[in-house]
Amino acid sequence: MSDIDRFLQAATRENTRQSYQSALRDFEVVWGGFLPATSDSVARYLANRADTHAVNTLRQRLAALAQWHLDQGFPDPTKAAVVRQVLRGIQAVYPAQEKRAKPFQIDQLMLVDQWLTTGADAAQAQGELASEQRYRRNKALFLLGFWRGFRGDELTRLQIEHIHVTPGEGMTCYLPRTKGDRQYKGGNFKVPLLSRLCPVTAYEDWIAVAALAEGPVFRAIDRWGNICASGLNIDSLVPLLRSILHEANVDAPELYSAHSLRRGFASWATANGWDLKTLMEHIGWKNAQSAMRYIDGEDSFNRRRIEQNLPPVLL
Fold it and tell me: In whole angstroms, what is the distance from residue 304 CA to residue 302 CA?
């Protein structure tokens, strides 16, 4: 690989690159399309996939095709009117409600924290190092994911050398790349030291028991207690979280995903008086529209607001 190819590859997030490669393979190999494509062939591809693919998946396929044509210096066929009209028609015929992760509530966080803490302490007392490591790691994963509102991929990309703990105050996590960071400036995210449910203490306990000094923060642990050198795979994160929720007796663990921690914190903060500007700065959202998608009001059906303003009963 040349230096130019290496830098071009680094300019695209790994998960984006993989999804684009999968989209191109589906268009060219599975469906039998040709690249460069015409607008008519892209429209026919959309029509063929409409019965089996969600609209958001089709949009991602269009983005991949558009990027390939731009990279290769060809006109972008996805911008043609016929392609846009076919996509709108598919949306009309197959309307789909946006799926959102169930928000993780503070009382559930307390339940999981208590279960993980009890398990870690018991494993430590019995000298079961591998079990203690799993409990400590999982506790840090949940508390940091909730209070910092990290995305799943951000949790898996955290590096120990990019985390600085300020005694008595908290810690700062640096991410070299975040979603929407087109200039690759990275971002610093501050995590508070709390009297209870503390993400900083949980992080320090995990790093200490795992004897880690550098590299990924969250890693897989095999059945023999060996800690992997690489970080958790993003595809393994949701099964891990749901497994923990199941073992901690949280109802319907299958309804939760990594985004549940982010949505849960946003809803908790809003219910406790955080203004939108403060919440956006804490999470790292750039626009209010993105933030509002994650916030579930405490009275989501507006029942209390309506009830308190109903006219009195006439006797």
Answer: 6
